[in-house]
TrEMBL record:
Protein name, per record: GntR family transcriptional regulator MpaR
Family, as annotated: In the C-terminal section; belongs to the class-I pyridoxal-phosphate-dependent aminotransferase family.
Matching SMART domains: HTH_GNTR
Signal sequence, renumbered to the chain: none
Pfam families in the record: Aminotran_1_2, GntR
Domain of life (superkingdom): Bacteria
Taxonomic placement: Bacteria, Pseudomonadati, Pseudomonadota, Gammaproteobacteria, Pseudomonadales
Domain HTH gntR-type as annotated: residue spans: 1-69
PANTHER family, sorted: HTH-TYPE TRANSCRIPTIONAL REGULATORY PROTEIN GABR, TRANSCRIPTIONAL REGULATORY PROTEIN
InterPro entries named among the record's database cross-references: Aminotransferase_I/II_large, HTH_trans_reg/aminotransferase, PyrdxlP-dep_Trfase, PyrdxlP-dep_Trfase_major, PyrdxlP-dep_Trfase_small, Tscrpt_reg_HTH_GntR, WH-like_DNA-bd_sf, WH_DNA-bd_sf
Keywords: DNA-binding, Pyridoxal phosphate, Transcription, Transcription regulation
Length: 469
């Protein structure tokens, strides 16, 4: 943690505990700097941070004041109730009806699955695309369909190395987004009727894939901060013939949970004992807020039991449809399945990304993106504390761009979704994240767009609707 963040946290604590009351002036920069022994620029940075979190505001020529409505932060939700039962999956209609209504560009996009396009270096990518297409060798136009672009695969493998995974290049298969990778992995290790362990709540497309492949879900509870409940998983593996697990060990969608390293190791050892493969969906891996990338479960894999799926859709190039899988012992089977279905992602898109990763300043872009997402998260949390009922619970993920809200019991999030949409606000209601339509009083809200007056107004409107149940 940087010094200014530490100092900001100390001031936030004074506000939270009421030592600094709403409306009160916070210490001037000069005063704070000499009292706390930090430089004026550290104090300024801390105050900017607190301002972006909605805790203080600047008044012209008067200094910084505690915001009037700055309220106690909302508490975090607990783990989802124990319910490791098997179930047929039938959510597609509900998911499509929700997704279909998110398309209106005039809507405040809290229900969206993507961050704002303005946060991506699209102009720089376009230059990479132009150069890559100009320089594409005639041979590559065909060869890259089967093998994938060699430069791109090398660049991806280098990023794995930094994240603690030494990956043989032939394990790496470039796919049409992570979605294709995840589908192929599941097809590789299951047959219709098989049981697959998934998270509760889970990314809705996971449920749709299970439904399409006629697989049955075993829902494992997830703690909003610590990730899946290993005891429940161990019990299910003991009792049921589970053929595969599909989990997100970092920045889980929709809860944002990230498992600690020891827990990831324990998960791997459990699966190794049962010889059950893990499909690790890690599409938000680059969006961590700390200083170190979280290591995937794949980093503990010595037997090729983990199929690790990643993507550029969420952090660099939505719409390019380029993802990948490090397929472990299943790599060859996955490669064949891909050749039998879509053959290859677009060769020019792969070449463009390879060029960008080598010359485009990817790490600089990622630092900016993470910083924007972190400050927008603080703004949404502060706004929720101002406008939502005090009994509302909310997650505080250490990355990504989703918050998961648990509203008071009587709130029906499907109804909330319809009422909010009528007012031009989208959200992702809880039941689309469950095979058994649970989480009826929950919703996922996206803070991936720059925070502005329209976002603040939308939170106020949502707060009023939630309060009316
Ligand atoms: C958890 C999760 N996995 C996979 C995907 C799909 O990624 P891609 O766009 O690369 O296919 C998404 C996109 O919403 C996601 O949220």
């Amino acid at each position: 943690m940087k010094l200014y963040e530490k100092f900001a946290d100390e001031i936030a604590e004074l506000i939270r505990t009421g030592v600094l009351a709403p409306g009160q002036k916070v210490p001037s920069v000069r005063h704070a700097s000499s009292t706390y022994g930090v430089s004026p620029s550290t104090v300024f940075q801390a105050y900017y941070l607190l301002e972006s979190r909605g805790l203080i505001l600047a008044r012209a020529r008067s200094g910084y004041f505690v915001r009037e409505q700055a309220r106690r932060p909302l508490p975090e939700p607990g783990i989802s109730a124990q319910q490791a039962q098997t179930s047929e999956v039938d959510v597609s209609e509900l998911v499509f009806s929700v997704l279909g209504s998110l398309k209106d560009p005039g809507t405040v996009p809290f229900g969206s699955a993507f961050p704002s396009p303005d946060l991506f270096p699209l102009a720089r990518l376009a230059r990479s695309m132009a150069r890559a297409v100009r320089e594409l060798s005639p041979g590559a136009v065909i060869a890259d369909m089967t093998e994938g672009n060699a430069d791109l695969r090398r660049q991806i493998a280098l990023r794995y190395m930094v994240g603690g995974v030494m990956l043989p290049l032939d394990e790496l298969i470039v796919t049409n987004g992570a979605m294709e990778a995840l589908n192929l992995c599941l097809q590789c290790v299951t047959r219709p009727g098989d049981l697959v362990a998934i998270e509760a709540p889970a990314f809705y497309a996971t449920l749709q894939v299970l439904e399409r492949l006629e697989l049955k879900a075993v829902e494992i509870p997830v703690h909003p901060r610590e990730g899946i409940d290993l005891a429940s998983l161990a019990e299910s593996l003991q009792r049921l013939p589970i053929k595969a697990c599909w989990f997100m060990s970092s920045l889980q969608n929709p809860l944002g949970a990230s498992m600690r390293e020891e827990k990831k190791r324990a998960l791997y050892e459990l699966l190794q004992r049962h010889q059950v493969p893990l499909i690790e969906d890690d599409v938000y891996a680059e969006l961590y807020f700390g200083t170190q990338p979280p290591w995937p479960v794949k980093s503990f894999d010595r037997e090729g039991l983990v199929m690790h799926c990643g993507s550029f859709s969420k952090c660099l190039a939505p719409g390019y449809r380029v993802g990948w899988v490090a397929g472990g012992r299943y790599a060859e089977q996955i490669r064949r399945l891909k050749l039998m279905t879509t053959i290859s992602p677009s060769v020019p898109a792969q070449a463009a990304l390879a060029d960008y990763l080598q010359h485009g300043g990817y790490d600089r872009h990622l630092r900016r993106l993470r910083h924007a997402l972190e400050s927008q998260q603080a703004s949404m949390l502060a706004s929720a504390a101002r406008h939502f009922p005090a009994e509302t619970r909310v997650t505080r993920p250490s990355g990504g761009y989703f918050l998961w809200f648990e509203f008071p019991e009587q709130v029906d999030s499907l109804k909330l979704f319809r009422l909010a949409l009528a007012q031009g606000i989208s959200l992702a209601p809880g039941p689309i994240f469950s095979a058994t339509r649970r989480f009826g009083n929950c919703a996922r809200l996206n803070h991936g767009h720059p925070w502005d007056a329209a976002s603040e107004r939308a939170m106020e409107v949502l707060g009023r609707i939630i309060g009316s149940f």
